[in-house]
Specification:
It is built from no helices and 15 strands. The protein has 171 residues and is mostly beta strands. Strands 2, 3, 5, 7, 8 and 9 form a six-stranded mixed sheet that branches. It has a four-stranded mixed sheet with strand order 13-12-10-14, with no helix packed on it.
């Protein structure tokens, strides 16, 4: 399966404690809501057992502008069953890295807080959310999705949708 575990639920901060082992299958991952204004407020996962990984992705939903260099403690686990996380942090255009060098702990650190400069480019969809590629990254014009911290430009480009629907939860 390729599901994602979100310890606090979508858009809310919370803690999930598992009293047994956790094995994340290939394609599965973890999603954490993090408070950009307070590294002490974030989703948190505790595994009272072994954590087994398969190049799994950590996705973050950043609420606010995170401080550079301050680690966020995302999870703790009792022992490693092997494997590793994918080093690319998903869900943000901010530069971020994972630190798993302390056994049993996973930290996230933001190394930069420059989001993308995006230009609205949809010719058919009116949806503004974090999953739809209705944007172009400027400069360069590469298709992109919108994440918290990105800048948005709407102009008079011919042919693009001009009535926009902002999805609930989009920040």
């Amino acid at each position: 399966s390729s599901g994602h575990v979100n310890p606090g639920g979508v858009g809310t901060f919370g803690q999930l404690a598992l009293g047994a082992n956790l094995t994340l299958p290939a394609g599965g991952g973890l999603t954490f809501d993090v408070n950009g204004n307070d590294p002490g407020t974030t989703d948190y996962l505790i595994v009272f057992g072994s954590l087994t990984l398969n190049n799994n992705t950590i996705r973050v939903d950043v609420q606010g502008l995170p401080p550079i260099g301050n680690p966020y403690l995302l999870m703790a686990y009792s022992s490693s069953g092997g494997g590793s996380f994918n080093p690319v942090v998903a869900g943000t255009h901010f530069s971020a890295s994972l630190d798993t060098s302390t056994p049993g702990l996973v930290y996230l650190t933001f190394n930069g807080t420059d989001g993308y400069n995006l230009k609205w480019n949809s010719t058919s969809s009116d949806v503004w959310d974090a999953d739809t590629t209705n944007w172009l990254n400027q400069p360069g014009g590469q298709p992109s999705v919108f994440y918290a911290g990105d800048s948005a430009l709407f102009d008079d480009t011919p042919g693009v949708v001009t009535n926009i629907t902002i999805d609930s939860g989009t920040t």
